[in-house]
Design a protein that fits this description.
Length: about 280
Amino acid sequence: MRHLVAIAAIAVPLALLLATGCRQAPGVPPAAAPASPAPQAPRERLTVFAGAASKPALEELARIYGEKHGAVVDITFGGSGSMLTQFSQEHYGDLYVPGSDDFMDKAEAKEAVLKDTRTPLVYLVPTLGVAKGNPKHIKGLADLSRPDVRVVVGEPKSVCLGAIARDALQAEGIWDEVAPRVASYATSCENVLQVLLLGEADVIIGWDVFARQHPDKVESVPLPAKYSRPRNIPAAVIKWSTQPEAARALIEFLAGPEARPVWQKHGYTTGSSTGAAKPGP
């Protein structure tokens, strides 16, 4: 019986406590509610359309910039002409970084970029690219018409290296002879390099940086001076950018002293294209 009384003595206060909604006892401060996590500010997000000629360095620089400034830099790589067509049709994006100044000229003509933001980042020189050791003994453009030589060039309308190849071969009077025999037309500067690395071409018309990036697999055969004019990889703010100041800040970083060692590490030539330039290792 005593046990029943004890249980009742416990049960009654407990029932009262539950019935009153567990009200706090007088004089005891209420327990603090758990603090909600502070909302985080949305990260700045920039969209870049880039020619694949800049890919090795630009990917690393985008990561560095994002970590330093708390931003996200999304990059779409491809043929410079294809990238220009894409963002022009979509009216979307923040930065255009073609593989050559030739395509930036086209972007300006289409009024697709802000002209006053155009900034050269690094420099490239067109060359013939062959496998290490030059097994086919390629000496110049005339060798591209040989029947035993597999030739790969960029697609002339959408790839800067393709337009350069077509113009040089036309000037030499052999484009009509070489064009039908081209093993494939690459869709980006990166693809031009890849076919050589995969052994699917004996010669390409490529960039000097390819041999510096792959010294054990690729070597350059110089083109005549009239075809080897240095080109620059430029950047400009896209006309339809909704955050042009942030886009300008990214351009300043890509062209600035902090980015220079990264460009050079990947074999690109920085500085002036007229003699003060410093090629990468």
